[in-house]
């Protein structure tokens, strides 16, 4: 008496069989799902800067001197380090100034600074990012923005989203001017 293979099941051990389970007569693998970033609403501004990433990073990293150039954070203190708390005055255009104490999540010299802030008792959580993409030795794109999450994120953005966007634009213009001037001075 010969061996009879078991029938093909419609579900695997833990549920429905996915497209990769079982025989694939075409030999073509299904497309992998696109990786998803963190959920939330992004508000961001990008700007080109004619200076090396190292010079732009020097301006961003020197938080104690932000008051000299940064209209969005006219007062700033703290050091860049994972888990470190920054003490910032946030001046969103058209809004009263506020003191915030974000916590640095991640930083990579010459590339990025990310911090986390919790507002309204945790109903709004944000991840702030300043990222430098080097296009050449002396040209970069700076991506400056924030990811808003939480139950009240949409409500907060309805009230002040345009102002936040304008503030990022003003900060970008000031960062561009500061970094390009510093680079020109170093060129002689």
Task: Outline the structure in words.
The protein is α+β, with helices and mostly antiparallel strands. The protein is 23% helix and 32% strand. It has helices spanning 53-61, 153-187; strands spanning 11-12, 15-16, 41-49, 75-77, 87-90, 98-100, 103-108, 112-119, 124-136, 139-149. The strands form three sheets. It has a five-stranded antiparallel sheet with strand order 3-10-9-8-7, with helices on one face. Strand 9 and strand 10 (139-149) form a beta hairpin. The relative contact order is 0.20. Mean pLDDT is 87; it is low at 7-20.
Break the fold down into its secondary structure elements and pairings.
Elements: E1 11-12, E2 15-16, E3 41-49, H1 53-61, E4 75-77, E5 87-90, E6 98-100, E7 103-108, E8 112-119, E9 124-136, E10 139-149, H2 153-187
Keywords:
188 residues, single chain, five-stranded antiparallel sheet, 10 strands, alpha+beta
What is the H/E order? EEEHEEEEEEEH
Radius of gyration: 24 Å
Q: Trace the largest sheet across and list its strands.
A: 3-10-9-8-7
Major sheet: size, sense and barrel closure? 5 strands, antiparallel
Q: What is the tally of helical segments?
A: 2
Classification by helices and strands: alpha+beta
Unreliable runs = 7-20
| Dominant shape | globular
Q: What is the mean predicted local confidence, pLDDT?
A: 87
Termini, distance in Å?
A: 92 Å
How many beta-strand segments? 10
Percent strand equals 25-35%
Quick recap of the structure?
This protein is an alpha+beta fold and 188 residues long.
């Amino acid at each position: 008496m010969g061996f009879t293979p078991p029938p093909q099941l419609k579900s695997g051990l833990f549920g429905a069989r996915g497209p990769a389970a079982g025989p694939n007569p075409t030999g073509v693998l299904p497309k992998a799902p696109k990786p998803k970033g963190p959920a939330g609403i992004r508000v961001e501004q990008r700007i080109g800067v004619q200076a090396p990433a190292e010079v732009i990073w020097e301006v961003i990293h020197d938080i104690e001197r932000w008051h000299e150039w940064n209209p969005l954070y006219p007062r700033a203190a703290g050091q860049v380090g994972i888990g470190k708390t920054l003490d910032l005055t946030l001046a969103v255009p058209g809004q009263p100034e506020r003191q915030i104490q974000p916590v640095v999540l991640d930083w990579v010299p010459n590339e990025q600074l990310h911090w986390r802030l919790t507002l309204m008792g945790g109903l709004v959580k944000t991840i702030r990012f300043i990222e430098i993409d080097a296009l050449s030795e002396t040209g970069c794109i700076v991506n400056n923005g924030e990811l808003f999450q939480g139950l009240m994120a949409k409500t907060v953005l309805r009230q002040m989203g345009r102002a936040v966007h304008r503030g990022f634009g003003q900060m970008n213009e000031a960062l561009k001017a500061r970094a390009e001037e510093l680079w020109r001075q170093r060129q002689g």
